[in-house]
Amino acid sequence: MDGARTVQVDLDANDAHMVEVIRLIEQRCLQNSIWKKKSLRARYYYGIIFWAINLLAWFIRDYGEHISVILNYSKACKVEQTDCSRKMGVLRVSIGCFIYFFIMFLSTSNTSKLMEARNGWHSGRWPLKLFILLVSVMLPFFIPSNYIHLYGEVARIGAGVFLILQLISVIEFITWWNSYWMPDETKQSICSIGMFMSMPFYVGSTCGIIAMYPMYVSNRSCLLNIFFISWTAILFVVMMVVSLHSKVNRGLLSTGIMASYLVFLCWSAIRSEPASEKCSPQSQQNGQGSWTTVIGFLIAICAIVMATFSTGIDSKTFQFRKDEVQQEDDIPYHYGFFHLVFSLGSMYFAMLFIGWDLDGYLKKWSIDVGWASTWVKILNEWFAASIYLWKLISPVLRQRKVMNVEQHVEEDESSS
Fold it and tell me: Can you tell me the distance from the alpha carbon of 261 to that of 166, in angstroms, rounded to the nearest whole number?
């Protein structure tokens, strides 16, 4: 009887221990779930902060003439004082945004688990972070203008890096979208849906190219616009031919989406031409209602924020190892990369507000207008097409290289 009682006591102790372990596991899972929700919610707060700073930069650029009377920061410019002070104001706000998100980048890098203190800093402590934001935005207004002008030169490079990251993210998304809807020949229904979905992109791209000729080629002297549109059409045809080649065989969906993206970049580049040019759509719209300009400006602001936000949360695209298993207590996205993209995004929106030109003329309610903006978008379009074509061709070249190596090995073995 004593032995049976001892066994019963041991069983009860084991059961109690198991119950305690299960309770601790459930508690840990609940805590992880709460922290993960806070982390996912925090990224939207950072997006709102970035959006508010964009609006502040716009307000200082278009309506900040009185600030220039108090703060003399026009010595580093080569144009008239009013326009110069507006550009310097945008760059100062951009520096403040860059400082804030770079501080967040340094303080959250290498965070991997939800229970780390750095995760709590990223997802909480908002009063302290708002204070740091306020100081970061105000501090650049007391920096000498020559240093601000130097930052403007550096911001061009940072904005270019941001465009490259955004471009890679877009291409990876297109590749994933294509592999999802057109995975292989065994899933005929999904492949049929993918083929059906590719048609609107091809029709839209073709119609867009055709429509741009009468819209933006008012006469035969608009040779640059003719070149931009015609070269976009050539890239469209080349990508389609390469993707349908028997050795590539990547389908039509990804090429259709990429073609639509290139047509959009071409259209946006032509729209950025300065109004002083006779072929510019800006000059053709003079005298029309200003509400279209306001709506276009607000849409452009939202597009900047969305581009920065979507690139920031897409850290998996830039990982060297993409086969890592996500643990339950891992952070949902990489905080360091997220804040680094936002710091580069601060340089990007500064370039858009000043038209990538530190010495040009600025017009109210305008964004990303000027020859510098036009050529940045055109080069971005050509670079995007080059990267996409390389992604199509590189697997074939790699396979041919492997086959050549194996063939040489077989020849060596047979000769020996």
Answer: 12
